Amino acid sequence: MFLHRLIRRQFDKDRFPCILSPLTVTYACLYSTETAMGVSKKTQDQSGYDYAMAVMKMCDILHLRHRKMWLYPDLFFNLTQYAKKQVKLLDTIHSLTKKVIRNKKAAFDKGTRGSLATTSINTSEIEKPKSDAGKTSTVEGLSFGQSANLKDDLDVEENDVGEKKRLAFLDLLLESAENGALISDEEIKNQVDTIMFEGHDTTAAGSSFFLSMMGVHQHIQDKVIQELDDIFGDSDRPATFQDTLEMKYLERCLMETLRMYPPVPIIARSLKQDLKLASSDLVVPAGATITVATFKLHRLESIYPNPDVFDPDNFLPEKQANRHYYAFVPFSAGPRSCVGRKYAMLKLKIILSTILRNFRVHSDLKEEDFKLQADIILKREEGFQIRLEPRQRKAKAL
């Protein structure tokens, strides 16, 4: 598998140390380039890696401007070395998008239509759980409105399961424009940049925190590995969408990771009208900026008993049903919530299951040793340092 080879290529030992950030950012970027732009990982050149590194360095500059008041005004910032670096980094970031759009449009002009590569196995042969025709099932633990019988984009339709060709995000936009939709090349570029920029760095942080927690909590990692062995056995076939629906325990561990270490620790909103607080007679005026500290919200003891303890059982269905609608908002909520949350969860499941099917994770640091850094996204100041040990897959139990 591509990710397996990527790790082994960088660390050619039986048991090796690994600093996750560059690795997970690189893979998440390559994954996003394939699904957002329709460019296969097999054909991507150095520009994919350069893009990932440019985004990381660009985030460092943005965070620097947040912390140093004298860099706020462009007048002063443009006199620094960071301004020159920013120009080069933005050129790298935008050039990849422009290059892919240019090539895609040329292919469209020749009548070629792109789609994501189909899997090399026949997914129709994989057994599906029996269900009523037309029934909508909910990805366990993800649908924020399920207790109120609401449906959102994280619900799974039965006809979503199986083998089919899907257009990449860029192909979909280009085809819409060709069919008469009022969308310019600049708007297409901005939409793709948004998916690329927001869709890989947050995923990299989420997967890095997840693997760190697996390294700390070996008994929990045992259960995740057992679940993956039950699903895949000793096969090295790629994961399918149906497989991800069966990753119940991995999903709970992932949700608990996002609870304790949300990639976006603070959410800001601008009020469009006056808002009276439910807790008092105070009125917050329209135009005010409201910040929601997701990191703090997810650690309220009134909502989560022992909030500083990593406990995947916090996301058992019965416990979720008894919590407030907005008690867990790693992707924000409401009309301004993350448009790619379903995509993010699927991507995380694929990445993490692929790693844990091939490696066991070890960490020399405990949770209390983590030094958190509130950058553009939540990170660890010391880096995500773990050790990966190749493991032998076990055949399915009969």
TrEMBL record:
Gene3D superfamilies: Cytochrome P450 (1.10.630.10). GO terms for molecular function: heme binding; iron ion binding; monooxygenase activity; oxidoreductase activity, acting on paired donors, with incorporation or reduction of molecular oxygen. Its cofactor is heme. Residues 119-139 are annotated as: Disordered. The keyword Metal-binding applies. It comes from Anopheles maculatus. Heme binds at C338. This is Uncharacterized protein. Belongs to the cytochrome P450 family. PANTHER family: CYTOCHROME P450 4G1-RELATED, CYTOCHROME P450 FAMILY 4. Keywords: Heme, Iron, Metal-binding, Monooxygenase, Oxidoreductase. InterPro entries: Cyt_P450 (IPR001128), Cyt_P450_CS (IPR017972), Cyt_P450_E_grp-I (IPR002401), Cyt_P450_sf (IPR036396), Cytochrome_P450_Monoox (IPR050196). The keyword S-adenosyl-L-methionine does not apply.
